[in-house]
Amino acid sequence: MLTKDGIIKSIKHGFIEWVESIGASINESVKGLGNIVLFTVNFFYWVFKRPFRLHLLVDQLFFIGNKSILIILLAGSFTGMVFATQTYFGFKLINVDSLVGAITAIGLAKELAPVLTGLIVAGRAGSAMAAQIGTMKVTEQVDALEVMGINSIQYLAVPRIVAGTIAVPMLSAIFLYIGNVGSYLVGTTSLMIDEAIFFSKLSEFMHVADIWQGIIKATVFGFVISVIGTYFGFQVEKGAEGVGRGTNLAVIWGMISVLILDYFLTVVLVRIL
Amino acid sequence: MKFENPAISLQNVTKTFGEHTVLNNLNFDIPKNKITTILGFSGAGKSTLLKHILGVIKPTSGKVIVLGQDLAELDEYQKREFRRNFGMLFQYAALFDSMTTIENVAFPLKEFSKLTLSEISEKSQHLLTAVGLKSESFNKLPSELSGGMRKRVGLARALALSPHIMLYDEPTTGLDPITTKMVNDLIVETAEVNKENGLTTVIISHDVRATLEISDYVAFLDRGRIVEYLPVDQFKKSEHPLVKEFLRL
Ligand SMILES: Nc1ncnc2c1ncn2[C@@H]1O[C@H](COP(=O)(O)OP(=O)(O)O)[C@@H](O)[C@H]1O
Ligand SMILES: [Mg+2]
Predict the structure, then answer these.
(1) Which helix (H) or strand (E) holds B20?
(2) Residue of A173, A24, A191 lying closest to A91 (CA atoms)
(3) How high is the ipTM of this complex?
């Protein structure tokens, strides 16, 4: 029956439920954050412990590189081309189109290269980390390691996290380079900017600090993406949805962390660099 | 039952997860160089018991003593070292799926032995041959092997570091009769072959028929308590109502 009281009651009830559900999910998130911090502490404990399994680190570097490099090249070149084209038509209005190369390079170095590389690696490698470790967890391969006396964090998470921290800045540098190649090609051919001016403005306006800002960001992103990827791998429990859910969470939280951290890193880095 | 110098001794072991008591004041000895099976319904606490023996989880109260060593006296690092006394065959073998058959068996040797690479390769081949694997399977990935073959490889890997205690988790559950017989034969053969080095076998299972054939002793775990523990011949004649019900399954 749709009485007025009934409707008000059900709205009230719905509201309370809604608040409760928010409360519960905040509660869950805080717990999750606590766990991930613990996991990170665990990583720092094990990363300095012998044995150092360098071959696993090398494997992971190749794995992350292979997974992402093609997309990085594609995304990098087109991002540089688009950015150059867009700035050109804006800058032309106030006759500063000679700055296209410089502005594109700075934008790529400080923001687009690290952030887009971070998003790509989160989608490709971060998810794969969660899937691999999650699968090992449900098939008891993680237990098999532990029964042999091998710490699974040290064996599985450490090489992935270290590799991610090294690989993302390297991939971001590739993104930056190829993006500039794209911007240069578009700028000097289709936009008819003089090549000499393109380069002189680039060296005039672009500073080493801009590159450092990107490298530092990419390093932090690489670390966080791999911590999240491995963490959600270890969180996988037996059951049908387990591995897929872990993979999804790794991608979502990896990407969100990149975007949120980007802001805070920017705030800090523009001051200290 | 009490044994002289048991391989494993649980003394007043209680384990609670929150409110839930999973192991309830267990007193339980497992004899050396015998095959002992722990039977029980699903959820009885068998896996939890196994994890206590391995020192993966700590009892809420009580003592776990393995090969004369109180596990509580070991620090984290020593506990990991100590685990090399164990070999374990997992229900689905738990082979590392990124490694070939022979790499799986070589893995513990590479990690823990001081053997050279060629010695490791030789030993791995020997171990695989001993569990009945043909050389054409040595370089296959686990995904290319049948369930029975995977168990053989898992057993070879577990035996690589010559453990003193072999643990089998549900070794025959869900297998067809022929593979069940094969796995049983492997367990018995492994126990026989390694007798002179001293190999204690512990099986946890809820597959009664398969395990009774090969066990020396059988314990029945129910809701965290050992309610019956007898030599296999007497166990078969047990008057305990739960055991009788279980044996009829
Ligand atoms: N880590 C844990 N946290 C909470 N409860 C657990 C945990 N591990 C096992 N249990 C509970 O203990 C009981 C026994 O589990 P388990 O030892 O796996 O039984 P079995 O192997 O005999 O099927 C189950 O009710 C299970 O839910
Ligand atoms: Mg179990």
Answers:
(1) strand B20-30
(2) A191
(3) 0.91
Distance from CA of B244 to the nearest CA of A (A): 32
In chain B, how many H helices and how many E strands?
9, 10
Query: Residue B33 gets which letter from DSSP?
Result: T
The residues spanned by each domain of chain A are 10-46, 53-272
Whether A94 has its CB under 8 Å from any CB of chain B: the answer is no
Q: Is the pLDDT of residue A241 over 80?
A: no
* DSSP 8-state code for residue B199: -
* pTM tops 0.80, yes or no: yes
Site of tokens 């066990």: B215
Cis peptide before B171 (omega within 30 of 0): no
CA distance B48 to chain A (A): 13
Atom of ligand 1 nearest to the CA of B20: 5
Distance between CA atoms of A32 and A256, rounded to whole angstroms? 15
Q: Give the CA-trace dihedral at A261, A77, A194, A200, to 10 degrees.
A: 40
A42 reaches B (C-beta below 8 A):
no
Amino acid in position B42: S
CB-based contact A139:B92 (threshold 8 Å): yes
pLDDT, tens digit (0-9, with 9 covering 90-100), for B104-121: 999 999 999 999 999 999
- The answer to whether A273 and A170 have CB atoms below 8 angstroms apart is no
Chain A residues 126-145 with CB within 8 Å of chain B:
135-136, 139-141, 143-144
Whole-Å CA distances, B40 to A16, A95, B175: 45, 83, 18
Spacing, Cα B89 to ligand 2 middle (Å): 13
C-alpha separations of B10 from B35, B43, B174 in Å: 17, 19, 29
